[in-house]
Amino acid sequence: ATxxxxxxxxxxxxxxxxxxxxxxxxGFGDLKGITSRLDYLADLGVDVLWLxxxxxxxxxxxxxxxxxxxxxxxxxxxxxxxxxxxxEAHRRGIKIVMDLVVNHTSDEHAWFQASRNPDDPHxxxxxxxxxxxxxxxxxxxxEPNRWGSYFGGSAWQYDPQRGEYYLHQFSRKQPxxxxxxxxxxxxxxxxxxxxxxxxxxxxxxDVITLISKRTDENGKLPxxxxxxxxxxxxxxxxxxxPNPFCADGPRQDEFLAEMHREVFAQRSGFLTVGxxxxxxxxxxxxxxxxxxxxxxxxxxxxxxxxxxxxVKWKPLPLDLPGLKRIFASYERAVEDRGWTALFTGxxxxxxxxxxxxxxxxxxxxxxxxxxxxxMLHLHRGTPYIYQGEELGMTNxxxxxxxxxxxxxSLNAYRQRVEEAHVQSPESMMAGLAARSRDNAxxxxxxxxxxxxxxxxxxxxxxxxxAVNPNHTAINAAAQAHDPDSVHAFYKRLIALRHEQPVVAAxxxxxxxxxxxxxxxxxxxxxxxGADDAIDNAGDAGDDAAAAGCARRLLTVVNLSGESADLxxxxxxxxxxxxxxxxxx
Length: 584
Ligand code: TEU
Ligand code: CA
Known about the structure:
Layout: H1 5-8, E1 12-15, H2 31-36, H3 38-44, E2 48-51, E3 55-56, E4 68-72, H4 79-91, E5 95-100, H5 110-115, E6 128-130, E7 156-159, E8 164-167, H6 182-198, E9 202-205, H7 243-246, H8 252-264, E10 271-275, H9 281-288, E11 297-299, H10 302-305, H11 320-333, E12 341-342, H12 352-355, H13 362-377, E13 382-386, H14 407-419, H15 425-435, H16 476-479, H17 486-499, H18 501-505, E14 507-511, E15 518-524, H19 527-536, H20 538-547, E16 552-558, H21 568-575
Parallel strand pairs: 1-2, 1-13, 2-5, 5-9, 9-10, 10-11, 12-13
Antiparallel strand pairs: 3-4, 6-8, 7-8, 14-15, 15-16
Helix pairs in contact: 6-8, 9-11, 13-17, 14-15, 19-20
The structure holds 1-O-alpha-D-glucopyranosyl-D-fructose and calcium ion (CA).
């Protein structure tokens, strides 16, 4: 099937505003900083910017705890700054997608503050349950409720003002909204329309697959009915890991279809991407099948959850055949309909070149960063670049706990080392160094000055998180004119997707599934597909037709760091007389 041209030929760049560019010397990135870097992004060639949240927030979870959806936090600037960014991006042909965090709000949102009064119209906007002093909501005499938060501890928090518990799957300052309540859904859709009418081009939807909760015939939530949660083992910290039973609830499709009708059905040129923990590749096909009017594409998480021993703080080395099996399931699920988002990094993941590449020498870091980019960008789907990935930025390699800022990391250290005693300090510090979300949140490295050009060298305050010392070697300025740089390689990859329809529309076929070192696959367009793809790709298609539209691409990447032979089926392809080996 030929995908919708615009977001199939598009490349999205994720900006974590707090770490991208500071322009007022307070050590935090801001909106004016993003606007000041639009020419860099236009030169890179990206089509869409996804901004992590910049709304009013107490910043408990760095803005994923929103206190006012329709205002900008002073940390980042003002609504006027946002309007300027939208206008300046559009002037360069770049779209702006914002982060929609509506599974939960901040506990400082007016809706939640009102909800703490059981007689207020907002009383039922969150998940409140009667309290038995000191016991999470459950059934007397039965199993205690062990629903665990993603950020450790119980997912239930007692509120003395209301005298009841409220559900929070993330931090206790992130109470879950009650999507069963039509008034909640109406308020969310009104806010979404307000932003789209203001000129943004879509949303990345934070944990959107958690909004429909499972309740039993008496309306009881998992764990509340006294049963052990879905027979899940209680984790080593005494709580049940939420993922397996919290995602993809009974009204998931209904809510997404309603949102599509109320917000997107009369619009065009937008992009919706759902963050979908706990969703299978098969469910991805249904949710992203345009005929179902739900979402354009999803981030799936199996590939960034499988390389650890039961918990992210016990990392395992990359099992390449395992990665190939997972990506093959993503590709198979959308070969006929639907679409997928391609990523290896974001603000929650460690830097991919440190995780699956080799950053131990400059040569290996550059080579492996390029290899990982080539592998990702030539898959079928829309690729996402996380800020700094195009430079081959690495993990932070922090050595002491006080360098970390992320509440997920700090909570985990306290709970696992100091409370549950399930990991040693050394093992946990190694786990944080490998997998903490802060690895992706060190300031963007623009040049080799004191704070990497993220903030002025003479800024009155240090950046909110340490700049990586390797910024003196790894920075945008050093790569801007180097044709062999990681940056130059990303530019060529992005251009290839714009010029060659086979990259967006070609069928994907894996070669050498079990090869432990080499990742090889083809993309191919049959004649009909080629003509459709060229027609659908607009003027990019015309250029490609003129330049000679490739019918087939062979990609072979050695991700092992050891020498490896070309897999036999790749060699056979290269011998095929209609493959122009000079262009491989
Ligand atoms: O992430 C949800 C989520 O699944 C992550 O918390 C992930 O499970 C974890 O970080 C990996 O160990 C979204 C946002 O991307 C994240 O930044 C927020 O903290 C979270 O939701 C709550 O809004
Ligand atoms: Ca600032």
